[in-house]
Amino acid sequence: xxxxxxxxxxxxxxxxxxxxxxxxxxxxxxxxxxxxxxxxxxxxxxxxxxxxxxxxxxxxxxxxxxxxxxxxxxxxxxxxxxxxxxxxxxxxxxxxxxxxxxxxxxxxxxxxxxxxxxxxxxxxxxxxxxxxxxxxxxxxxxxxxxxxxxxxxxxxxxxxxxxxxxxxxxxxxxxxxxxxxxxxxxxxxxxx
Length: 192
What we know:
Shape: globular
Strand order of the largest sheet: 1-2-3-4-11-6-9
Structural class: alpha+beta
Order of helices and strands: EHHHHEEEEEEEEEE
Strand content: 25-35%
Mean pLDDT: 85
């Protein structure tokens, strides 16, 4: 995963360290050893240790596995102070996986069960989700452009302001066949 923030590599290094620190804190709060977390997530103890020490930049798939194993939203690794928060496009954390880029809009929700992201899909590209936890509902709303969302091999054509909701653990992909970047809002809701 490329974790970028439209600026310095030093800030990216700080973000990798912040993810590691948050992971360590969450693991310790749950009184889990690295071995136990590795068993829960399918991510090796060695990899988890490197992430916790800020020595490894985890892929989006690995982050999903870690947060699922800990039973927390992905955005909990990017938590900030509570209060009034404003999410400005292009100014926050950006997680990149090939042609797909997401920005967590808010690091935590009021009840910890909903995560909201701004997503960008490059022109003439496709993004297939590798992993989502069981019991997650995904809602995608097109903010600009158009996309074809394929869920369990069935396509759904969406234009600006159209939305689709489906089980996030079902096989799905986003396709942008246009010459423009497609912008979406993605909401992920965990069952309590």
